[in-house]
Amino acid sequence: MTQTKNGDRVLRAKPRADAEDSGQLPGWTDGLRQLYDQVVDEELPEGLRDLLAQFDKKS
Amino acid sequence: MSETERTASDKADFKRELAAVVPHLRAFARGLCGRADMADDLVQEALLKAWAAQDRFEPGTSMRAWTFVILRNAYLTDMRRNRFRGEYDETVAERILTQPAGQEEPIHLADLHRALLTLPPERREALLLVGAGGFSYEEAAKICGCAVGTIKSRVGRARAALNLMLADGSVPRRSISDEIAHRAILDELEEVAAGNGVAGRG
Question: Taking a C-beta distance cutoff of 8 angstroms, is the pair B138, B148 a contact?
Answer without folding.
Answer: yes
